[in-house]
Amino acid sequence: MSAADVAATVTDPELPMLTLAELGILREVRETDDGVEVTITPTYSGCPAMEAISADLVRALHDAGYGRARVRTSLAPAWTTDWISASGRAKLAAAGIAPPGPAPARAAGPVPLVLGVREEHVACPRCGAESTERLAAFGATACRELRRCPACREPFEHVKEI
Amino acid sequence: MSFDDAYQALTDHDDDARWAYGTGFADPLAGVPTALPDGVDGADLAAYCLMLGDDALILSHRLQQWVTRAPELEDEMAIANIGLDLLGQARLLLTRAGEAEGAGRGEDDLAYLRDAPDFRHVRLVEREDPDFGHLIARLLVFSTWRLALLDRLATSRDPVLAAIGAKGVKEVTYHREYAAGWTVRLGDGTDLSHRRMQDAIDAVWPLTGEFFAPHDVELRLATAGVAVEPASLRSEFDAVLTEVLHVATLDQPAPVTVGRTGRDGEHGDELAAILAEMQELARATPGGVW
């Protein structure tokens, strides 16, 4: 397998149903005379999984015979949920996590203030009901929020659009 | 390879990676180009990164003190997540400060081995929250200011600061929304919650003057296209606060001006208590790994 194929099989520690490639944080894999160089980008600045992700990548490449591998960080452009692939979105939904919609477009000028209920259309990943409501803007990880479905009365998580 | 939790990978193997100080944690800017922009003084850039990094580090510490004490589990998760975002920003900024300084200091050295007068955060972030209303009031004014600042920083000539700014905007947008939502709920709530929210706004307001008081380093770097001129943030700050406080039926206190500030290393006694807690272990066992 090429180094890129090996790196593409590594999964995310906090969303283990997704590979790093499907999550959109695997940015580049280069094979050079000096070994393999993998570039990843954090989802959020404080993402505590970056160390584990780097270690997983190096180990997977090592196990596949790429003895010299290093991981570098890219900060720009900043990760956006638009980089989550179609297969990644399908796997999130299958795991009961509502995938993100399109990231909000940013107009010129200051970041608009949202007061009260956000206009969001997040379908329930369990029963498919189209209208659900936010319980809390912050969930088990930085990238997820908590919602509930009035139709099936089940709570669920949603990957926030950023 | 997959694990049920993110931390198992760090403890399953006998390498040096461990959580906490002395961990052998990788440089959060590993592989990011570190060259300074043309014509920018490294000492100035280091000082500026410390200012913005210390703001995030100290507030992150104050926020995590609420963990296990928040009124609801959902709010505890919000506060912890906001603190984690700020800690991530602090790590990047302190690492950049160490690079720009060029004296071999990393993020851990700067967080754990500096004394109080060497910290450069605004004094707002070090005060203790007497109650949840104060936490919200501080987070409202801080996140409103920092969102405006990071948004402008995204066009900095320093590519690292620009990247930190662009990324941070996405995070702090949520912080501000959370704080503004609670300000409205408490301000436009019961007589008791209204009074206590007004008390909290009145208590933090005098400290907002520091946001807009320029330090020489900020002015020099703003001229060089690297930093944000503090005074330029005032109109956005005022517009947002006016709207939130109006909807929350709260009175907006009068603008304040200040003399020497946290940017000059002027701090209160509360910082000593924070540092005693935050730095104790690292200082007791220098370079310790566990």
Q: Can you describe this structure?
A:
- The complex is a heterodimer of chains A (162) and B (290).
- Chain A has 162 residues and is α/β, with parallel strands linked by helices.
- Chain A has 2 domains: 3-73, Fe-S cluster assembly (FSCA) (GMP Synthetase, Chain A, domain 3, 2-Layer Sandwich), CATH 3.30.300.130; 94-103 and 117-159, no CATH class.
- Helices cover 20% and strands 21% of the residues of chain A.
- Chain A has helices at 3-8, 20-23, 50-63, 86-94, and strands at 26-32, 35-40, 69-73, 97-98, 133-136, 144-148, 155-159.
- Chain A has a 4-stranded mixed β-sheet with strand order 4-7-6-5. A 3-stranded mixed β-sheet of chain A has the order 1-2-3.
- In chain A, strand 1 (26-32) and strand 2 (35-40) form a beta hairpin.
- The relative contact order of chain A is 0.15.
- The model of chain A has no long low-confidence stretch (mean pLDDT 93).
- Chain B has a single domain, classed as Ferritin (Up-down Bundle).
- Chains A and B meet through helix 3 and strand 3 of A and helix 1, helix 3, helix 5, helix 6 and helix 9 of B.
Instruction: State the low-pLDDT regions of chain A, or none.
Output: none
As laid out across the biggest beta sheet of chain A, the strand order is 4-7-6-5
Helix share of residues of chain B? 55-70%
Quaternary class = heterodimer
Q: N- to C-terminal separation of chain B?
A: 25 Å
